Amino acid sequence: MMSSEDEVLSRELDIYIRKHLHPEGIKLRDFLNLGGQYGAAPNIGGAKWALEFLLKNLELTFSERLVEIIEEKGRKPSEIYTKAGITKTHFSKIRSDKDYHPTKETALAFAIALHLDLRETNDLLRRAGYSISHSHESDLIVEFYIKKGIYNIDRINNQLDLRGHKTLTNWRKIKD
């Protein structure tokens, strides 16, 4: 049974989703012939130089940035991975493999555990190859709670579960 505060948030969330959900976005096929329409030809030499430059100047990976954020916030890794619903073994794997690729739910759970704002959350997600999309109701649910400054994984998981979405964690009670 939901508390009256959770019921109010649930109604606000319904309104937020109706306002922001855009299931149909721009499709790749809309851009397939764009270069040909404007007579653009690829510049192979420039592309090679650009690729070399990008490879030399890679930004931090998801796991590198995650560890950096934990240190910047002066938090204990054990506190963060516990709040995120991640085991010590799993966190050790993430920390030791700079190229570790988490699920979107794991990345979001860390963002919530670290109390990241929307910009910081999107930055962390991007490093794992994800983003918060207004085409997915589950993303809007997480975005809603972040914008409200409510970083309680259980409450977020409850709304995800109630609406038929995959939860961020295995959804056991996590203390704030």
Structure overview:
This protein has 176 residues and is mostly helical. The chain is globular, with a radius of gyration of 19 Å. Helix 7 (104-113) runs antiparallel to helix 8 (118-127). It has 10 helices and no strands. The chain has a domain at 9-21 and 60-162: Orthogonal Bundle (434 Repressor (Amino-terminal Domain)). Residues 30-34 have low confidence and may be disordered.
Produce the secondary structure layout.
Elements: H1 4-20, H2 34-37, H3 44-56, H4 62-72, H5 77-83, H6 88-96, H7 104-113, H8 118-127, H9 137-148, H10 153-162
Helix pairs in contact: 1-9, 7-8
CATH architecture of the domain at 9-21 and 60-162: Orthogonal Bundle
Structural class: mainly alpha
User: Which CATH class of the domain at 9-21 and 60-162?
Assistant: Mainly Alpha
Helix fraction by DSSP (H/I, runs of at least 4):
55-70%
Mean pLDDT: 85
Number of helices, counting only DSSP H or I runs of 4 residues or more: 10
Parts with pLDDT < 50 across at least 5 consecutive residues: 30-34
Please summarize the sheet with the most strands: none
- Rg (C-alpha, Å): 19 Å
Shape: globular
Distance between the termini: 19 Å
The number of distinct β-strands equals 0
* CATH-defined fold name of the domain at 9-21 and 60-162: 434 Repressor (Amino-terminal Domain)
What proportion strand?
A: under 5%
Order of helices and strands: HHHHHHHHHH
